[in-house]
Amino acid sequence: MSVDELHLDIQELQRLLEFTNRPNVQAALTKAIEGVEEKLANLKVAQEAKNLAKAESEDGKPKTSHLSLPVSKIRTYGWDQSEKFVKLYITLKGIHSLPKENIILNYSKKSLKLVVRNLGNKNMELIINNLAESIDADSSSHKVKADELVLLLRKASKTQWSALTQKDVKPEEKVPPYNPSEDPSAGIMNMMKKMYDEGDDEMKRTIAKAWTEGRDKSGGGMNF
User: Fold this and answer.
1) Mind listing the pLDDT tens digit for each residue in 79-115?
2) DSSP alpha helix (H) spans, 60-155
3) What global pTM score does this model have?
4) Distance (Å, rounded) from C-alpha 171 to C-alpha 74?
5) 220 pLDDT exceeds 60?
6) In angstroms, rounded to a whole number, what is the distance separating the alpha carbons of residues 167 and 95?
7) Exposed, middle or buried, 187 (CB in 10 Å: 0-12/13-18/19+)?
């Protein structure tokens, strides 16, 4: 498979990722994208090695390339947001000394890919394929500061992001509706039981604590 075909596969997978909201599907697509990107990187390294070998055989001088350097994943960064932008702060010692062309950023509607070439004899890489909200790729940019790179993701709308990635977005807690036709105490009991059954561990602990305290005071309580 050629480099161009792998690029097309990645673009198609990213397009599919933008149109799904199911966490399991997003995870599967993200894993598939990472797999194709790994194949693409390996193919580029192989092609570059072949080209270097050919060049050396022609003039007898050793050649070097960023493609032959090890790749280090960027896993630590901070982020915040304003009304118009989501900002990622990445500490990279010496990045301000690199040529501009060594910093490569590709933005899409719900993803980004950063490659920093030949920083400390390594290529640095950050890939985020499941942003929590959409961004304006054409209006997104970056700034280089002393030992720091700031990514400026332009929001597609003035939505307040609750998380950076879709997988970290917490679902809204659903409170069951109150039915006025029910006996008040029975209605509250049913509502609390439903909240307990559908709640997370923290919700269960909170309700169980309230139930225990109520039982100790009144001698009764809810049966979960």
Assistant:
1) 999 999 999 999 999 999 999 999 999 999 999 999 9
2) none
3) 0.54
4) 28
5) no
6) 30
7) middle
Burial of 219 (0-12, 13-18, 19+ CB in 10 A): exposed
CB 87 within 8 A of CB 152: yes
Two tokens at 114? 């950063």
Amino acid, single-letter form, for residue 212? T
Distance between terminal CA atoms of the chain? Answer: 58
The helix (run of H) or strand (run of E) holding residue 151 is strand 148-154
pLDDT at 153: 97
Q: CB atoms < 10 A from the CB of 88, how many?
A: 20
The domain made up of 69-166 is a member of CATH 2.60.40.60:
no
* Domain spans of the chain, in order of start: 1-67, 69-166, 171-224
* 187 phi and psi angles, rounded to 5 deg: -65, -40
Cα–Cα distance, 115 to 62 (Å, whole number): 25
β-bridge partners, 200:
none
DSSP-assigned letter for residue 161: P
CA distance 85 to 81: 6
Strands of the 85-91 sheet, one edge to the other? 78-81, 85-91, 148-154, 141-145
DSSP state of 93: T
Q: Do residues 29 and 19 lie in contact, with contact meaning Cβ atoms separated by under 8 Å?
A: no
Q: Which amino acid is at 192?
A: M
